[in-house]
Specification:
66% helix, globular, mainly alpha, YcfC-like, 10 helices, 215 residues
């Protein structure tokens, strides 16, 4: 369950930062580095090692998970006309889309093989460029465009049009979406299932809160 929560939190975190970049064009360099580096860690010692070995690196995702899956009174800070807090449908759409795309990917062995080859090529670039350099971010973005997008059910990212038109932001968004796919792959590998989100919400939220409390 702990591994499932870590990976699910990473999906939430990737979706959240897609929102942030699409709306503001801004993302903390360290936050970006954690997520995009996870794409390159394909033989980890354990699940947390994919995210730098520290729970603090998925802290944002844990908070989002708790707020989003917890009781409606704990939901995020948006409020409706009656003053009740409501959850973020855009964030939900991104998360569901990432999980659905991963399911399509695992049924395509040819695309999976291509994905592995392209990620290996990106790893070699790390010898010469920083993980958050324009070169690497562009490389991850092209992997997403070439291999993930053609699977169908493209994720329609909404945000500030002037920000979304900028190539650098497009690349960051696609790289973040690829990190979300990576997290979804991990989530499935450690036993994560979509029905668990529906039927084990209280257990998921309780475990996530316990993990958050240790940070």
């Amino acid at each position: 369950m702990k591994d499932q929560i870590i990976t699910l939190a990473a999906i939430f975190q990737a979706a959240h930062f897609v929102q942030q970049v699409s709306r503001t064009g801004q993302i903390d360099e360290n936050e970006l580095a954690v997520l995009v580096k996870s794409i390159t860690i394909t033989s980890p010692e354990n699940t947390l090692a994919v995210y730098g070995g520290e729970l603090v690196n998925v802290k944002q995702g844990l908070k989002l998970l708790i707020n989003h899956l917890g009781d409606s009174s704990m939901a995020n800070s948006n409020t409706n006309t009656e003053g009740k807090k409501v959850k973020d449908p855009e964030l939900t759409r991104y998360i569901i889309s990432l999980i659905n795309l991963e399911r399509k990917l695992v049924k395509q062995p040819k695309q999976l093989a291509q994905l592995g080859e392209r990620i290996d090529a990106s790893k070699r670039q790390l010898e010469h460029y920083d993980i958050t350099s324009e070169t690497l971010i562009s490389s991850f973005a092209s992997i997403y465009s070439d291999i993930i997008s053609p699977l169908g059910s493209r994720i329609q990212v909404t945000g500030e049009p002037s920000i979304l038109k900028q190539t650098v932001n497009q690349h960051k968004i696609r790289a973040l979406l690829l990190s979300g796919i990576r997290a979804a792959v991990l989530w499935r590998q450690v036993g994560g299932k979509r029905r668990n989100i529906l039927f084990s919400r209280s257990k998921i939220v309780k475990t996530a809160q316990q993990l958050l409390n240790t940070i």
